[in-house]
């Protein structure tokens, strides 16, 4: 059982500096061919300051920083037992190469189903840029299968 | 005229068909997304975890959904995007991403299309169900 004492726990800030090389690598990995995501001129012509982060990219912030792994370790969820249940994003402004994004998360729910065979952890996060502006809100549900 | 100017409920977005999932794709996505969970790249680890083989990251499937959406409307119009990971996307699964305008709704004073998105493999199994809100301006 996941200790309910973690409910309300707030993670250490995860910082992710967006750079063109990483965004191009991400575009390649997902097969994105729209030049807006790889060509700075195309991005600028589309109204972005620089290459924009694709819609799901900011999930990387807490992966890179180790915050997600730290949460799993804290909650004593083995890596081999975790699945991603749900993921949500609410967008407020673009994040582009050159921006430094900081993500802070809070555990907002822990519950179980099937008599404890499946446990769920819901994490709500805010991603802000270097000006402190809200870029996106994220909501993640992790599933631990026993 | 941009197709999103004449959007109607029931309208389908042009589908996106992906090549079958292979190990190279999972390896690259692990690096690019920062998700280094070995269950997606290391067969030995996956087997120890009770899985027959490595399998795709949920967020890879969601990123493909994002491609469908941003190909249909500029990303700056995307207000919300969520996904429920229903089934595991296995190696060899060839995913087709489909989107359909479920309804036109007003959200926070903006006219928006609510799009239902699905990732389905070649056997008709639905792997991910998504929901997105796109501002129509």
From TrEMBL, chain A:
<dbReference type="InterPro" id="IPR039569">
    <property type="entry name" value="FAS1-like_DH_region"/>
</dbReference>
<feature type="domain" description="FAS1-like dehydratase">
    <location>
        <begin position="6"/>
        <end position="136"/>
    </location>
</feature>
<dbReference type="InterPro" id="IPR016709">
    <property type="entry name" value="HadA-like"/>
</dbReference>
<protein>
    <submittedName>
        <fullName>MaoC family dehydratase</fullName>
    </submittedName>
</protein>
<dbReference type="InterPro" id="IPR029069">
    <property type="entry name" value="HotDog_dom_sf"/>
</dbReference>
<dbReference type="Pfam" id="PF13452">
    <property type="entry name" value="FAS1_DH_region"/>
</dbReference>
Automatic annotation (TrEMBL), chain B:
<dbReference type="Pfam" id="PF01575">
    <property type="entry name" value="MaoC_dehydratas"/>
</dbReference>
<dbReference type="InterPro" id="IPR029069">
    <property type="entry name" value="HotDog_dom_sf"/>
</dbReference>
<feature type="domain" description="MaoC-like">
    <location>
        <begin position="17"/>
        <end position="118"/>
    </location>
</feature>
<dbReference type="InterPro" id="IPR002539">
    <property type="entry name" value="MaoC-like_dom"/>
</dbReference>
<protein>
    <submittedName>
        <fullName>Dehydratase</fullName>
    </submittedName>
</protein>
């Amino acid at each position: 059982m996941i200790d309910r004492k973690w409910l309300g726990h707030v993670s250490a800030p995860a910082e992710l500096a967006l750079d063109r090389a990483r965004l191009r690598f991400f575009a390649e990995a997902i097969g994105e061919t729209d030049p807006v995501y790889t060509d700075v001129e195309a991005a600028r012509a589309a109204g972005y300051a620089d290459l924009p982060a694709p819609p799901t990219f900011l999930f990387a912030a807490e992966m890179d920083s180790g915050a997600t792994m730290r949460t799993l370790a804290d909650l004593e969820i083995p890596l081999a037992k975790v699945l991603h249940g749900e993921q949500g994003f609410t967008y407020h402004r673009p994040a582009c190469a050159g921006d430094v994004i900081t993500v802070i998360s809070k555990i907002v729910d822990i519950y179980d189903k099937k008599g404890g065979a499946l446990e769920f952890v819901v994490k709500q996060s805010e991603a802000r840029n270097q000006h402190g502006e809200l870029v996106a809100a994220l909501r993640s549900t992790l599933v631990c299968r026993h | 005229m941009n197709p999103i100017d004449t959007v109607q409920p029931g309208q389908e977005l042009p589908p996106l068909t992906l090549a079958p999932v292979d190990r190279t794709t999972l390896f690259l996505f692990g690096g690019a997304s920062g998700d280094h969970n070995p269950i997606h790249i290391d067969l030995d680890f996956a087997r120890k975890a009770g899985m027959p083989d490595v399998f795709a990251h949920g967020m890879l499937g969601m990123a493909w959904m994002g491609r469908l959406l941003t190909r249909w409307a500029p990303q700056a119009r995307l207000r919300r995007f969520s996904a429920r990971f229903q089934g595991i996307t296995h190696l060899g699964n060839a995913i087709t991403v489909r989107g359909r305008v479920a309804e036109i709704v007003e959200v926070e004073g903006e006219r928006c299309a609510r799009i239902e998105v699905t990732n389905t493999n070649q056997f008709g199994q639905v792997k991910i169900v998504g929901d997105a809100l796109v501002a129509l301006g």
